[in-house]
Design goal:
The protein has helices at 18-25, 30-52, 99-119, 168-182, 190-211, 269-273, 279-292, 300-309, 319-334, 339-350, and strands at 13-14, 72-76, 86-90, 131-137, 144-146, 151-154, 222-223, 238-239, 248-249, 253-254. The protein is of the alpha+beta class. α3 crosses α4. The longest helix has 23 residues, at 30-52. It is globular, with a radius of gyration of 19 Å. The two termini are 30 Å apart. The relative contact order is 0.12.
Amino acid sequence: MDASHAHHHPVFCTVVPPHLLDKIAQSENTRRADAAQRTLEQDSLLRTRRRVTTVRGIAPALGTPVSDEPRRTIYDTQHRTRLPGKKVRGEGEAASKDATVNRAYAGLGATYELFLKGFGRHSIDDSGLALDASVHYGEDYNNAFWDGQQMVFGDGDGDLFLDFTVSVDVIGHELTHGVTQYTANLQYHGQSGALNESMSDVFGSLIKQYSLDQTAEAADWLIGAGLLGPNVSGVALRSMKAPGTAYDDDELGKDPQPATMDDYVDTARDNGGVHINSGIPNHAFYLAATELGGKAWERAGLIWYDTLTGGELASDADFKDFARLSVAAAVARYGDGGAEHQALQKAWSTVGLG
């Protein structure tokens, strides 16, 4: 591990971006506005707490064999906010009567399995880190997050947002923030922050595709499908295939994601638009994966994984840095005359980063 990656900055990452909750907090429907406001206040408190407790990677003891099996524990906070809560299911234990507990357990397993079988990675830190998750967090809590040590899921308000364990890609998205924390440790603002978010969307989508055994063509490329309530005009939180089209709703507003650098959003909000401009590298991945065809984790996913974990990606990398390094990773793995090299050049060029 080089010096720039030695310290793991405290990053608090939620799947529902603050700009979206801000919009709902202005709703004329007081129940919706109150739930959004409570979620924002809780997120703000947690963000502050994360700055105080920096997470550092712990190197595994040399010669310690790492198991190929996950170590999952699910806790129930029982609608309180004290973590982790009461233990309700451990690794290998029988299924719970609570479907939310079982979905969280299965989602942690699906994430662990893709990283192991697809990329040879043993858990989040590549040293067999135990995977802990807490469910039923808070009251009407409209989010899910990785706090640097564990996963946490709200139940949603049952109106605009449903239970946050329903989308396996959301579980994979949040856990991938942990993988990024232990590898390139991308700073959570501006373009490096948008890359951090994009890594989570890419691998979250791959985890869903892997668990459904889908090809790149068959996948929906949506993040958080099934998460929006029945009254919302929208299909998901984000679309990698068509950024900016995931929702267009009176309460949520319109999906602000750009697909190319032509529409890059310059903003001070959301840490410099980390959940907004992530649409650009997301779209580049979608383009490369569908150009290559087949199972997206087998070629495009490997190239992205190599780029994230290769040690060359600086913690303050911008989109151009990632584009350049991903093309180099494709050449390193597949040679410079291949379909992979061409697919990446074409994808980055299409989004304005050629």
